[in-house]
């Protein structure tokens, strides 16, 4: 989506004054870009009509830079269509807060349940996961695994004990949560591969029985044109309060987001952006619009960096840099912090101008971090503390030990020296830099 719009806007920026023909050509391009991104036709039509109307109005004619004004209008309309303000999770005045999940099978409900539990736990809550998906044979087991990873307990019916009724399980879980002082209850429900009446009835019955504070509809961002029909069906069936966009990682086209919000009028609360439990972001309409318009999602990037970089560790490193005692061990620790951020490819994709560097990003090798880690781990303590002692035979031993080559070891030492030099010049307390890649 972005690449195309970037070109259109670049062209527009060369214009001092816009003719109606310019506006029409631009709107046509935006329309094509949105349709390419699988935004529903009705949504595209309404969107481009609004942009066109505003682009041809006095607001643009009288602007100092009409082209920039059009870019601004597109941005504003995108933000509006994505829901305007950031919508945060609503908590009950009287705990427990009950959050029910709904959506098709494979949408990412169970994964999201774990992600949300992990995030809430990190914020000091005491969430519990509830297995109300009793449809698929291994659904309860999957939730238990997710719960273990997130470090939260799972409420599930006793195995073999008649199993059966998800409505009863969900209802009982609320009493259990209240008893055990869990302040948030996350109820995972069953899905089907397609919308069907029985599934919707069951979801509606669970909703009625537990009266949730939030009903979150989880939808796969890759679903494309089916997004509208699916969202409508769930909106009518369970009347959800918000949307979770899952699988918004990699080069997923964000078209479904625009369609779902615009068709249901319900806000997106979270974006699920990968298979790991940490891959969850609060959805910010403004940032998503910027991302679509390729202004880069710098804010989200910084937020993630701050979370992953352990503050204590960062301070220690800053201290060492100040004392010029930065070693390969510290380098390794930094590398591991960076890995916590997730795929480097994904991070690079969030940077401004990412659409223009698509090819370089595609070629970035995420395994580089892993190999670098292996190399450092094959070094002795003395070598890590003082890379100057790394002669030829030591380098060969390290290459063999880490399954890499001497030339890779050489490159790493070189990168480390560059990084160490660079870090000395970085002021204390600034954003940590990425070894060998320059600062963010
Ligand atoms: P459910 O049937 O709705 O509970 O869906 P699951 O949570 O079981 O997820 C279905 C599949 O999608 C699993 O293989 C997950 O690992 C994967 N998945 C879930 N969320 C994401 C995401 O944000 N990104 C990616 N890449 N995969 C995801
Ligand atoms: Mg599931």
From TrEMBL:
<comment type="similarity">
    <text>Belongs to the GTP-binding SRP family. SRP54 subfamily.</text>
</comment>
<keyword id="KW-0687">Ribonucleoprotein</keyword>
<keyword id="KW-0694">RNA-binding</keyword>
<keyword id="KW-0378">Hydrolase</keyword>
<dbReference type="GO" id="GO:0003924">
    <property type="term" value="F:GTPase activity"/>
</dbReference>
<comment type="function">
    <text>Involved in targeting and insertion of nascent membrane proteins into the cytoplasmic membrane. Binds to the hydrophobic signal sequence of the ribosome-nascent chain (RNC) as it emerges from the ribosomes. The SRP-RNC complex is then targeted to the cytoplasmic membrane where it interacts with the SRP receptor FtsY.</text>
</comment>
<protein>
    <recommendedName>
        <fullName>Signal recognition particle protein</fullName>
        <ecNumber>3.6.5.4</ecNumber>
    </recommendedName>
</protein>
<dbReference type="GO" id="GO:0006614">
    <property type="term" value="P:SRP-dependent cotranslational protein targeting to membrane"/>
</dbReference>
<comment type="subunit">
    <text>Part of the signal recognition particle protein translocation system, which is composed of SRP and FtsY.</text>
</comment>
<feature type="domain" description="SRP54-type proteins GTP-binding">
    <location>
        <begin position="267"/>
        <end position="280"/>
    </location>
</feature>
<dbReference type="GO" id="GO:0008312">
    <property type="term" value="F:7S RNA binding"/>
</dbReference>
<dbReference type="GO" id="GO:0048500">
    <property type="term" value="C:signal recognition particle"/>
</dbReference>
<keyword id="KW-0963">Cytoplasm</keyword>
<feature type="binding site">
    <location>
        <begin position="246"/>
        <end position="249"/>
    </location>
    <ligand>
        <name>GTP</name>
    </ligand>
</feature>
<dbReference type="GO" id="GO:0005525">
    <property type="term" value="F:GTP binding"/>
</dbReference>
<keyword id="KW-0733">Signal recognition particle</keyword>
<keyword id="KW-0547">Nucleotide-binding</keyword>
<keyword id="KW-0342">GTP-binding</keyword>
<feature type="binding site">
    <location>
        <begin position="188"/>
        <end position="192"/>
    </location>
    <ligand>
        <name>GTP</name>
    </ligand>
</feature>
<feature type="binding site">
    <location>
        <begin position="103"/>
        <end position="110"/>
    </location>
    <ligand>
        <name>GTP</name>
    </ligand>
</feature>
